## 1
Amino acid sequence: KVALDPANSVGVIPAVELLKDLGCKVVLVNGEVDGRFPGRHPEPKPENLKALSHLTRSSGADLGVAYDGDADRSIFVDELGRVHWGDKSFAVVARWFLARWPGETIVTPVSSSSLVKEVVEGCGGKLVWTKVGSVVVSHKMMEIGSKLGGEENGGIFFGPHQPVRDGPMSTALMLQVMVEEQRPLSALMDELPRYYLLKASVRCPHELKPIVLEKLREHFEHMNPLTIDGVRIWYEDGSSILMRPSGTEPIFRLYAEAKSEGRVEELLGEHMKLVEGLVGEAERGARRP
């Protein structure tokens, strides 16, 4: 049984047909098609999925799934009603995928969790990073012949079907994983490596972003940083941080990850101070005659 929240989008039509063809019983919330999205905000964030979480538990569903407004991204809810962000569901699919296509290359944007890196490399796969953006992931998959891509926001690209995000296809993949593994989604999620994530931002005028970004690259050059979109570095304990200028706002975004709460707080604090210092330095330089 699948509990489905399509956010009143047209995605309900193919999703319900597909699930019924797969032999699933379907229970719906926000299932009436209405482009005004009256049931909930179309972004499938955990805070918007309380109704789906309750429906999944109360109906005895094996799986809950929520789509965004155009149904190309899927956020999954386990049978206990817990909402899982896209990095975790992608890691579950990636592990299943690599057991069937050993050594394959998987594509993901630089904003994805280190969880994906640990799972893919631990299963003998290769990981290719891209700039943030679903179109970039799709193009890279086609360029290198990759069969699987994924994003932290719930986008999964399954090449044998089509190398673009597809919510109903992602749902079918997750069901396939659960059937073959003969385990509930909660168990599949709980056995994944655990990471703690913190996000923050630092004010930075648009015109100073290139200067600060170059200073960050120079500062971390000895650590072989990933610089395809911002600057991302990994430490020996597995923790990592991404420092990336926003494309729309006058800020630098920071995404810190670690395997303990204390470490992730320490990591974020250290690098916020670094970025703030570089912004201040750039501002002073800009004021000099």
Note: The two ends are 69 Å apart (CA to CA).
## 2
Amino acid sequence: MALVHGPSGHDIGESACMDTAVNVLGDLTVLSAQRNMTPSAPKQRQVLALLSARANRLTLTEDLYRELWGSRPPRTAAATLHTYIGQLRRSMAKALDVAPRAVSERLLRTQPGGYVLRADPGRYDYAQYQRLLDKADEARRTRQAEKAVPHYRAALDLWRGPALADISCGPVLRVWAERANESRLNSTEKLIALELQLGNPLEVLSELRELAARHPLHENLHGQLMVALSLAGRRNEALETYHSLRKRIVRELGLEPSARLTLLLQDIIKSRPHVHALWGLDSHDMQYSA
């Protein structure tokens, strides 16, 4: 296929799509050649957000309909979506100083059943996050806690805020963002559990305080905070953390804390750090912490 040239004679070729950075772990940004191609119009942003969440993969037309209009798209849905895609291509072409046809052939491509936004895998933050997470999880499975920790940290450092924080999400994006945010929290808990196992409570104490405040009924995070405080020699604060959490759970849920958290409390009272340092670790972690 011949290269397509823009108004200034620039060719887009493969280099433009390979230079495209897509960021969804925070505010949405799509950049190419250091030029921001993220539109300001809400509907275009919503379409681009779903394409970005699935960068380098096919985004089905039906999913775009459902994202924009829910379960009852209007009769004009196909034409309206076609308009939004055309507007996106024109705004990208303007940012890159190339013809819109170049964008449709190289960056935002029509495929049978939908569209594909092409991006540099090394500059797509969600793909980077998944690769680092795979490395971290593999190191944890093979009992290499000290190797897993920096991989988890590198993965979590890619986040700049909640996924697609500046997008008004419809039903499809809402599910995707919730899953991504839950993955972030789960990865954070794994990292903290390993740091506690390695005897580094001060490395995670401030982060745990912030997380516990953000998730006031989350037992595992509060349990990890109790462990970190106890290991740091602040047993009274650990006990206060338990009692404050218990009051909230009783008041808001009408329940008592789980038996697991109550056992942790007893471990802390009896000063058994070799036991309660295992809090939050799954079977893989506990195998190499014994």
Note: Strands lie at 21-23, 29-32, 35-36, 59-60, 108-111, 114-117.
## 3
Amino acid sequence: MTAIAGVVRELLVRYLDAWTPGALHGARGATFAHGWTGAPDAAAPEAALRVFAEFADRLRGRRLAVLLVGPTAVEVARPLAAIQAELGTPPELSVHAVEGELDGKLPVALKAAGAAGAPLLAHLDGAGPAALAAVATGKPAEVLLVSSTRELPDPPFPLTAHVELVNDEARLVTFATRQGKSLEAFKNALWAVDEYAGVRYRDPRDPEGHLLDISLNPHPGPLRRELLAHLAAAGERSVTDLREFTLTHTVYRAADTVRVLTALLSAGAVRRTPERGRLSGDVLISPR
């Protein structure tokens, strides 16, 4: 296991903690798909099962299908029956292995699982357009995509976040969703991950490529630059607008916006209207 794979797995586990209760609330079924094109992270499905086992009481009258799709899927799935027996998971939690090429097999596997129109989260490594289009049939649908850093993928979802994981190699993680609250949950999970052997984050949109230590209080430098550049281009914006910009166009959380704006105001780099009072959502910020 590489250090980057460890970070991705912990990020997945933390996000599943947030996703699973909502996916099982009000829906009769939900699907988690784990797919890959190269060498699989064989520990990821077990980690996911352990999260799902914590919510076993919510599975009564509902189903949760775990799909493993990719080369060697059958081999990856083989130890999971023993894991389920150890955890005592109910029959409503099922595991299905579909072996073969991800882009060709994932659409078929999702259709067979009845994933369309129900909550769907896909954790994919190296997926192409056909796989991403198939994931979009879920309702709601979300994808955690791992890929090379050569170009930013464009999943068919309105809200996306991109972050590069860097040590002696680099991998790009993209999260895509249709729901702002899910993007918030992903960002919270992103910065709550434990540090792994020198792995740091980098915003692929940051022209300076600043490396960020993983921390609950990340270094504000790149966000400061991005907010100033946005204000210079767009002009006066409300704090609410700037929080949305931070959430959807940077690696930071919306909550980090006020911390950085407070520092910018203290430094005289921006001005606010009204000049005094709490920095609430309707306060207007403009460049100097």
Note: The chain has ten helices and twelve strands.
## 4
Amino acid sequence: MAKSSMAGKARQTKSTGKSKKPLLASHQRSWLWGRNLVLETLAAGRWPIHELHLADDLGADATAAALAQVQAQAPKLKPGRASRARLAQLCGEADHQGYLARVGPYPYVPAETLREQARMPSLWLILDGVQDPYNLGAMLRSAEVFGVDGVFLGTQGQAGVNSLAARSSAGAVNRLGIARVPSLPALVAELRRAAVRVVGASLHADYTLDACDFTGPTALVIGNEGTGLSADVMAGCNMVATIPQAGGLNSLNAAAAAAVCLYEVQRQRRQDVSMWGNVASPGRMS
């Protein structure tokens, strides 16, 4: 069998077990920074913004555009002005571009709502113990680009959406439906009962990715960056697949593997468009 580019072996700990190390995504205060991310979050109107700070040396046009968006989307929000040094002190980053927002908890979508709003054939992404918020953000970016209907995250041992993930996602957190569920094995079982094919990604698998049929309702499962899928989640999958590899390294990182898997789904569905309609058009959360 060809080598795989999936990350990690099945881990023996349960997916509902508690992580022994604090996750990078845990912060008492969540700041979003950077022009595009702040303005897109404001325009989307989903993630509550409690404070908005603009650099006091922003040009007149940039300031006017930002204030006009505030007036349109959050008229009760009163933007503050501060030096760039002060903004950097608040968020701990110097690359804020003069835009800084303090946000509340990320507005996760109920799992039932995600499933009700799915197109046909549905496409889900399930993340099983992804701990690095930058990897999480990169996966969310790929999910948005490739038209995923919704992303499911566990509640234990899994990074959540925060400022780091938002930055890495290039704003995809404002366009995707993302749910947290207490039990990924239970979710997998529910999806299978609903005739969704659940395919896990693993370094060790009996099938290659291109041999799987993704033209019907599908849920892709990506595991932890180092240890891969948890044993209980892997056991619940319909099948486990690996990415064929021609090079000498034995794996891609988890975020790259997720992008390859999602591309393969859309590649197959574009070829099968006569059966399902215009499935290549990515869905968006309103």
Note: The radius of gyration is 20 Å.
